[in-house]
Amino acid sequence: MMKPNMHYSELKDSYLFARIAEKTKAYLAEHPGAHLYRLGIGDVSLPLCDAVIRALHEAVDDQAERERFHGYMPECGAPFFREAIAKHYRRRGVRLSVDEVFVSSGTSDELGDILDLFDRESCALVIEPAYPAYVDANVIAGRRILHLPAGKENGFLPEPGENAKADLLYICSPNNPTGAVFSRELLQRWVDFANKNGSVILFDVAYEAFIEDPSLPRSIFEMEGAKTCAIEICSLSKTAGFTGTRLGYTVIPAALVRNGMSLHDMWVRNRTTKTNRVSYIIQKGGAAVFTPEGQREIMENIRVYKENARILTEAFDRLGFWYCGGKNAPYVWVKCPEGMGSWAFFDLLLNEIQVVGTPGEGFGACGEGYFRFSSFGSPEDTREAAQRMLRLFSKSITPPVRKD
Question: In DSSP terms, which residues pair with 355 in a beta bridge?
Answer without folding.
Answer: 37
